Amino acid sequence: MTDVSTRVRGLVDRARREVASVVAGRGPAQSPTRRAADASAYWRDGDDDRWASNSHFRDSDAFADDASLWGRVGREHLELVRVAARAAGWTWDSPRVVDWGCGGGSTAVAVAPEARELVLVDLSARTLAECARQVAATADTPTVQVEVDVDAPEAVAGQVAGCDLFLSFYVLELVPSQEHGARILRVAAEALVPGGLAVVQFKYDDGHRASRPRRRGYAQNLADMTTYTIPDFWALAESVGLRPVTLTLVPENELDRRYAYLAALKPQP
After folding, report:
1. 112-118 contacts: CB < 8 A, separation 24 or more?
2. Please, what are the averages of pLDDT over each run of 10 residues along the chain (269 residues)?
3. Residue 24 pLDDT
4. Which region, left, alpha or beta, applies to residue 242 given φ > 0 means left and ψ of -120 to 50 means alpha?
5. For labelling, which of 78, 112, 129, 162 has a CA lying 20 to 30 Å from the CA of 94?
6. Hey, is 3 helix, strand or coil?
7. Exposed / middle / buried, residue 247 (Cβ in 10 Å: 0-12, 13-18, 19+)
8. Looking at residue 4, what is its pLDDT?
9. Residue 10 near residue 4, CB atoms below 8 Å
């Protein structure tokens, strides 16, 4: 009964957030520059429970009702990557892994035993430290912490270069605009070695009003700030030099709705 009531409460809370997000998203769009500044301020300066939940910290409110959810999210991501790797003919061989937008570390912890090195990338030094701490508690895989600015992903290109596997989950819906997402994909394409694999998640626009990009009120709408239609995102990956292989849709999970996971290879010369 407790699990059922928790599930119902979660659905009600999510519905309220979606209604509030649509209402807050009405009005003229703010400029990408303004949204980028608001995003930077939110992720660097936040320190409340909502910030910790949005950052996917293991001990945050987001995971309080289900202690196993945090680890399960990471394991599900790892399985998605394994399925994509098989479909692409990509072989695990102690890869150098970039986890772009590592958050509190659920994905990094799951992937760490498979990697020879983890490059953790995030907007917040506090988040990077938490992610590295979680990895160190479960694996001896070396980590590199890379702090990145919302409006300058290219500035860390040299620190992520030479990776075999580029991962990015729960990030592209949080960026200030579709162009910011495109810039991260370009960095991924440049960072991967030939034959390397990228698996990135985005929120898809299914044609309904609630799935459209918000373009204003970053702190209130961050989880729906940027969405893509599926054909547009596939074409975007191709335009930056990646070769899409698989696309996995997850209409709903414990955290949110309308998730899509694209796996793409960097072609051999």
Report:
1. 112/138, 112/139, 112/141, 113/139, 113/141, 114/78, 115/141, 115/165, 116/141, 116/142, 117/141, 117/142, 117/143, 117/144, 118/142, 118/143, 118/144
2. 46 50 62 94 93 96 94 97 96 96 98 98 97 97 98 98 98 96 98 98 93 92 95 98 97 94 96
3. 46
4. beta
5. 129
6. helix
7. middle
8. 45
9. no
Burial of 161 (0-12, 13-18, 19+ CB in 10 A): middle
CA dist 40 → 34, 69, 148 (Å): 10, 27, 10
pLDDT at 210: 87
Q: Does residue 261 contact residue 171 with C-beta atoms inside 8 Å? A: no
Token reading at 110: 């799951």
- Cβ contact 49:64 at 8 Å: no
Using the Cα atoms of residue 25, residue 30, residue 31 and residue 37 in order, give the sign of their dihedral. Answer: negative
Two structure tokens written together for 53: 């939940």
Number of domains observed in the structure of the chain: 1
Ordered alpha helix ranges (H), 25-141: 32-45, 49-54, 69-88, 106-111, 125-136
Domain containing 30 equals 2-265
CA distance 218 to 205: 18
